[in-house]
């Protein structure tokens, strides 16, 4: 009797442990080792050829992974188009006419589908593409954890709520990143991806015409030449986020901030007398610290609320639910 009860209790505990670990399935770098051994090489070839065609694409792909992970986790929800059941995230203010690289992810996905149909998720392709992009333009590399599934839903309202905005103040940015499990140090390191890529006049107009003391006057006047004062004139005109070396991944972004030459307000607030000043100082002096912190923070960002195990699906086409 007693033995049977003990046995039943032990079995129940085992079941609980098993079902808990199924929900908590961990990402792993060898996830496709048996099911698609050529996945990473196939993605890499595709991503490298896209960046060789257009170097800015490296920046766009890193940003795409970020904008995916901050909205209901790294589940490729950002890739879903509007449909009767989906309100796409692509059209919220922070994404509209701004996030790019969708066709590059589609190309990588179809290359992978050719070698192992129905196996590799779009969410994993986004994570691998971001790593390959960083590596290609001289940034750090890291081992990408894999095994994310794709969502069957998107959320425009969460995208609007959770993606940072260029006019956000420091505390708001800190809170947003903290709500995703990322520290101030992670946030500053990740913002260092503004060492590459471009921003549109509409995102920095107010700052360059502010005549404020938190922007270098010469820098503001240079930027005004290609960004007219009146909305919507020249809204889409581009300027490099890092005025010194916009095409290579280095720590000049932080050196610019020390000189009040951050392009976006959300850049300059990281060095404006607040709690993140010391981190910016550190990265401006120690490029290797920035590189290793950036890699760790990207891994952490890639871990935000993934769908694993039986949750989620493998989309055959990234822009729609199967
Ligand atoms: C801290 C809060 C952040 C804000 C407010 C912000 C905002 C922006 C804005 C407004 C742009 C220009 C978009 C346009 O004009 O179309 C941009 C570009 C970019 N952002 Fe951020 N960003 C932030 C953090 C990050 C993070 C964490 C990453 C990556 C991990 C990132 C990666 C990029 C890249 C690479 C670009 C250039 C994209 C391209 O050239 O296509 N940003 N960001």
From TrEMBL:
Annotated EC: 1.11.1.7
Q: Which UniProt keywords apply?
A: Calcium, Disulfide bond, Glycoprotein, Heme, Hydrogen peroxide, Iron, Metal-binding, Oxidoreductase, Peroxidase, Secreted, Signal
Disulfide topology: 36-116, 69-74, 122-318, 201-227
Where is Ca(2+) 2 annotated to bind? 195, 242, 245, 250
Sites annotated Transition state stabilizer: 63
- Keyword Transport listed: no
Supply one GO BP term.
cellular response to hypoxia
Where does this protein hold Ca(2+) 1?
68, 71, 73, 75, 77, 89
GO CC terms of this entry: extracellular region; plant-type cell wall
Say yes or no: keyword RNA-binding present.
Answer: no
Which residues span the membrane? none
Entries under InterPro entries matching the protein: Haem_peroxidase, Haem_peroxidase_sf, Peroxidase_pln, Peroxidases_AS, Peroxidases_heam-ligand_BS, Secretory_peroxidase
Residues of the active site are 67 (proton acceptor)
The record lists substrate as bound by: 164
Matching entries from SUPFAM superfamilies are given as: Heme-dependent peroxidases
Q: Its principal location?
A: secreted
Query: What is a GO molecular function of this protein?
Result: lactoperoxidase activity
Instruction: Report the enzyme's class at the first EC level.
Output: oxidoreductase
Q: Which cofactor does it need?
A: heme b; Ca(2+)
According to the record, cofactor stoichiometry and binding are noted as: Binds 1 heme b (iron(II)-protoporphyrin IX) group per subunit. Binds 2 calcium ions per subunit.
Q: What does this protein do?
A: Removal of H(2)O(2), oxidation of toxic reductants, biosynthesis and degradation of lignin, suberization, auxin catabolism, response to environmental stresses such as wounding, pathogen attack and oxidative stress. These functions might be dependent on each isozyme/isoform in each plant tissue.
Stated name of the protein: Peroxidase
